[in-house]
Structure formats: C-alpha cells, structure tokens
C-alpha cells in the first residue's frame, strides 16, 4: 500500500502503563506548529492464571521493530530524529498515523502497524472480519 508521508521530528518516545493498567507506547511527532502521536496499542494482555497483565510476543516484537526501524538500541535515542509519519491516502488533517519511515539518508526503514497486526493476528476471526470490512470499503487490498 502506498502512504502519504508527512515529515516531522520525534519530540518524545515512551513506553508506559496507561490509566487502565495497559502497557502501551507513544511517539510524539513535532511537525513545526502542530504535534501528533503514534501509538496507543496494547503491548500486554490479561493472564487469568496469574491474575495480572503479562507481556506478549506481539508487544515485544513491536518494540524490536520500532528500535530496528530507527537503528537504535535504546528508545531515548529516537528523540530528536527526523522521520516520516505515514497516512492512508488521501491524507486529511488529524488522520491516524498508520506507520513511520526513516528518511533514505537515515536508513529508509518502514514500520506499519497494520502489517504488524496482520502478522500476529491474521488468523484470528476478529481480524478476518475487520479485514473484510476494509476490503469492502476499498481501504485494503485482497
């Protein structure tokens, strides 16, 4: 899929437990006059046996992909980096950021959240139903 790109600078990069107790992450883009976040995806799940939230392979792989996209070994080294925010076409103001891409001079690597979700959840019924809706709406390829 082709994406519209908007160039910005990473203002902050953080993993944290949000107010519902869910482990998540956010990268905040500074676009020079406006800012927007990428993230908010669940990186853990509830384990009934342990009676607590536990990390997931989905979440760990997402963290590794973020670090690898920027070619860093620590999250704080992402801050201040120039990066493209990727949007579904056509871009409209305040659309959801679908992924990130480093500029060619900085590796040109791309991470797209929908591809990550499909990799880890593609066989699950809820994912198949959502995918069918997107295909019917012309927002995904068959």
Keywords:
single chain, 142 residues, alpha+beta, OB fold (Dihydrolipoamide Acetyltransferase, E2P), 6-stranded antiparallel sheet, two-stranded antiparallel ribbon, 3 helices, globular
**Neighbour order of strands in the largest sheet:** 3-2-1-6-7-8
Rg is 16 Å
CATH topology: OB fold (Dihydrolipoamide Acetyltransferase, E2P)
The description of the largest β-sheet is:
6 strands, antiparallel
Tally the beta strands: 8
Approximate helicity band: 10-25%
CATH class bucket:
Mainly Beta
- Report the span from N to C terminus: 11 Å
Helix count from the secondary structure assignment: 3
- Shape, principal axes of CA atoms: globular
**Total number of domains:** 1
Uncertain spans: none
- Look at the helices and sheets and give the structural class: alpha+beta
CATH architecture identity: Beta Barrel
- The proportion of strand residues reads 25-35%
Reading the helices and strands in chain order gives: EEEEEHEEEHH
Rounded average pLDDT: 92
Model description:
The protein has 142 residues and is of the alpha+beta class. It has one domain (3-112): OB fold (Dihydrolipoamide Acetyltransferase, E2P). Helix content is 25%, strand content 35%. The protein is built from three helices and eight strands, in the order βββββαβββαα. It has helices at residues 57-70, 113-121, 125-136, and strands at 3-17, 23-30, 35-39, 44-47, 52-55, 82-88, 99-101, 110-112. It has a six-stranded antiparallel beta sheet with strand order 3-2-1-6-7-8. A two-stranded antiparallel ribbon has the order 4-5. The longest helix has 14 residues, at 57-70. The radius of gyration is 16 Å and the shape is globular. The model has no long low-confidence stretch (mean pLDDT 92).
């Amino acid at each position: 899929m082709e994406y519209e790109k908007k160039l910005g600078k990473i203002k902050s990069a953080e993993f944290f437990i949000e107010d519902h107790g869910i482990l998540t992450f956010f990268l905040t883009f500074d676009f020079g006059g406006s800012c927007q976040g990428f993230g908010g995806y669940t990186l853990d799940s509830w384990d009934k046996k342990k009676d607590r939230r536990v990390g997931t392979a989905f979440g760990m792989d997402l963290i590794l992909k973020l670090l690898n996209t920027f070619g860093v070994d620590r999250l704080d080294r992402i801050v201040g980096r120039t990066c493209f925010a990727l949007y579904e076409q056509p871009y409209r103001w305040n659309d959801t950021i679908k992924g990130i891409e480093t500029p060619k001079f900085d590796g040109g690597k791309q991470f797209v959240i929908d591809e990550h979700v499909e990799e880890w959840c593609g066989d699950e019924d809820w994912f198949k139903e959502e995918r069918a809706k997107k295909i019917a709406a012309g927002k995904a390829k068959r």
